[in-house]
Design goal:
- The chain is mostly helical.
- It folds into three domains: 19-129, Orthogonal Bundle (Arc Repressor Mutant, subunit A); 134-220, no CATH class; 223-351, no CATH class.
- It has 16 helices and three strands.
- The protein has helices spanning 19-25, 31-45, 52-59, 63-75, 140-147, 152-163, 169-180, 186-198, 204-216, 222-242, 251-263, 268-281, 286-299, 305-319, 327-337, 342-351; strands at residues 79-83, 89-94, 119-121.
- The chain has a three-stranded antiparallel β-sheet with strand order 1-2-3, with helices on one face.
- A hairpin with a 5-residue loop joins strand 1 (79-83) and strand 2 (89-94).
- Helix 3 packs across helix 4 and helix 14 (305-319) packs across helix 15 (327-337).
Length: 353
């Protein structure tokens, strides 16, 4: 079939969508996430406010669905959610989009529009803050009510088949947490159990950490969970190879990598750069050494590989007798000059995990 010509006869009223959003962001987002983002663009360019309930009503979604979509875009650094001291969502700031597969920290982004029009205002309603990912203290009555739901018995049966044992009340509360607080569907809970058990993890505390990670990343279906898990595991093995490791990661090594990706929020290219420098510097305790580099970069405000060259230049100036520009750069330079007892350092770091 030949090329199809597109023409425009729709008048002047239109919503502008960045080509970067179409090229780089849409491919990994689900329908609900795309609808929410486009709706925000529409309201923003009309200089109109929005509320979570308005968005939910517009697309026949729940408010939890809308919040999951918003947190997904925040994770992608496409927008920033601004809360007040009482944990009410007050603003949604659309950010400058970048051609990248990795997200920048939210405080490093530039607004997409001018300051006068960069904010979509939320009505004064209480919206769950990210701390809402904490597991509630469910009561026996909560469990009984959950047990009376139509598909709960089947869900418990599936869990027992995966685990090879009868569920305890604590196990059931974890499943209730996945469904009630995180808003997971039965299919996603099924896949969560399967995913963890296949990796030899039958501890529900571990499953809860995985589930919260998925929820924070806006995962709503098994397919999305598979894509995220595949991307994460690929990054883990790239980091292992960069540090000269060909074996599967140990528990302590996974703890380091999780810290670099989730806690420090670094792009994979930044982590690989730290790994390259580590390999050139030492043959021993490479994870501890790389962790010190990445911790110093985080303190210095590094977000991209391009930011590192500025630190390197400052380091060279300090070596030549010039003073550093900022305290954060000074922290980085002190690391570059210092020598460490990495045996003691690694033990200290692992105690934190």
């Amino acid at each position: 079939m030949g090329r199809i010509q597109l023409t425009n006869d729709c008048g002047l009223e239109a919503t502008v969508v960045s080509n970067i959003f179409i090229d780089s962001y849409m491919k990994d987002a689900n329908d609900a996430q795309i609808k929410v983002y486009l709706y925000l663009l529409r309201q923003l360019q009309a200089n109109a406010g929005v509320s979570i309930s308005d968005i939910a009503d517009c697309f026949n979604h729940t408010e939890k669905d809308v919040m999951r979509a918003l947190r997904y875009w925040e994770k992608c650094r496409a927008l920033t959610l601004v809360y007040d001291e009482e944990k009410n969502l007050r603003q949604i700031r659309l950010n400058d989009l970048q051609h990248t597969d990795s997200a920048r920290p939210a405080d490093a982004v530039r607004p997409l529009y001018s300051a006068a029009s960069s904010v979509a205002v939320i009505s004064h309603q209480t919206i769950p803050h990210p701390s809402a990912y904490e597991k509630p203290a469910y009561t026996p009555d909560d469990l009984k009510a959950f047990g009376r739901r139509e598909n709960t018995a089947q869900l418990f049966f599936i869990a027992e088949q995966y685990l090879g044992r009868t569920l305890s009340s604590s196990d059931m509360k974890s499943i209730l947490f996945f469904s009630d607080k995180l808003g997971f569907s039965d299919e996603l809970i099924d896949y969560l159990l399967q995913y963890c058990v296949e990796r030899g993890k039958k501890d529900f505390r571990y499953m809860e950490k995985v589930a919260v990670g998925w929820a924070q990343n806006g995962v709503t279906t098994p397919e999305e969970a598979k894509r995220q898990s595949s991307r994460y595991e690929k990054d883990v093995y790239r980091i292992m190879n960069a540090l000269g490791r060909s074996n599967p990661p140990t528990q302590s090594e996974v703890a380091y990598i999780r810290r670099w990706i989730q806690e420090y929020g670094f792009e994979i290219d930044v982590i690989l750069e730290a790994c390259d420098r580590t390999v050139l510097a030492t043959d021993r305790h490479r994870f501890a050494y790389a962790d010190r580099i990445l911790a110093s970069w985080q303190k210095a405000g590094v977000h991209h590989v391009s930011d590192i060259s500025g630190l390197d230049a400052s380091h060279q100036k300090e070596k030549a007798g010039k003073s550093p520009k900022t305290g954060s750069i000074s922290e980085y330079n002190r690391f570059m000059h210092n020598s460490y007892d990495f045996d003691a350092l690694e033990k200290e770091l692992l105690k934190e995990n």
